[in-house]
Design a protein that fits this description.
The protein has about 120 residues and is mostly beta strands. It has no helices and 11 strands. Strands 2, 4, 5, 6, 9, 10 and 11 form a 7-stranded mixed β-sheet that branches. Strand 9 and strand 10 form a beta hairpin.
Length: about 120
């Protein structure tokens, strides 16, 4: 399984970005699809995830600003990020769960928010 993430970039505080991640090489659906991020000097953290049935989870720091969605037919997951802040600056990774843990990871895409 390969995950290809895209959509990162440089944006001013208060701006928006949309991240996309497409999975290929799988013949199965994913129980969960999620987005993680890792800022310099910090641990990787789960930002948002979405279950195959559509239920979602968001980290408190992004609730009300980020929206995760998925397209099962395209094996894709998206992250709409609004009202971006400097503290959202990080490398964002998409990942998917086949059974119970995040097994497959994308290569990461840089998001930089200038204040």
């Amino acid at each position: 399984v390969q995950l290809q993430a895209s959509g990162g970039g440089l944006v001013q505080a208060g701006g928006s970005l949309r991240l996309s991640c497409a999975a290929s090489g799988s013949g199965f659906s994913f129980n969960y699809m999620g987005w993680f991020r890792q800022a310099p000097g910090k641990q990787r953290e789960l930002v948002a995830q979405i279950a195959s049935g559509g239920s979602t989870y968001y980290a408190d720091s992004v609730k009300g600003r980020f929206t995760i969605s998925r397209d099962n037919a395209k094996s894709s997951v998206y992250l709409e990020m609004n009202s971006l802040r400097a503290e959202d600056t990080a490398v964002y990774y998409c990942a998917v769960v086949k059974y119970t843990t995040y097994t497959y990871w994308g290569q990461g895409t840089q998001v930089t928010v200038s204040s």
